[in-house]
Protein: ArsR family transcriptional regulator
Organism: Kitasatospora cineracea
Amino acid sequence: MPRTSRRREAPHYPDTADIDLLDVLHALSDPTRMTIVLTLGREPERACGTFPVDVAPSTLSHHFKVLREAGLIRHREEANRRLTTLRAADLEERFPGLLAVVTAAYANGE
Amino acid sequence: MPRTSRRREAPHYPDTADIDLLDVLHALSDPTRMTIVLTLGREPERACGTFPVDVAPSTLSHHFKVLREAGLIRHREEANRRLTTLRAADLEERFPGLLAVVTAAYANGE
């Protein structure tokens, strides 16, 4: 099965200046992806299988890809684990205040 | 053709308290819909055919529906025209600062 090697291909990360607002809004418009972002807001780095979301691994991979390509998260490999971080500083540089307002709005809205 | 009467059925508008953040983010994640929202931010009320967007009428109807059901806009009929307004006060009440940050981010990002 080529799956693992495919998943581990070098992922694409947009440069901070190329982060697109509409991609960010789209990435945040899904409850699983919003939960991932909120979780990373509270905890700087997490292993990929440890997020409090109830979806199949392939679905989670898809959500990570959407978040990654929108510029919201970054992965790094450490030993056998893939760790995920929020690109909070990059997002703040690109769109000041956006992430704070959106995550506060989500917390208020629930 | 039943099209006109179908389009003129009483549209659904969520109450302010029921406006859902993920629906709002999704609605704003499209360039045509973002343009409609930005245009209404500058000008309080516009007739539906007068937005600076280059899409077919049926596509525009779809975008209005997404914006309406997300709680971003409201229509009212006046004579033969359907006028559209941004629900700016409702959005500010529900998610303080959100619309301002998002529209500023979009203006910066372009």
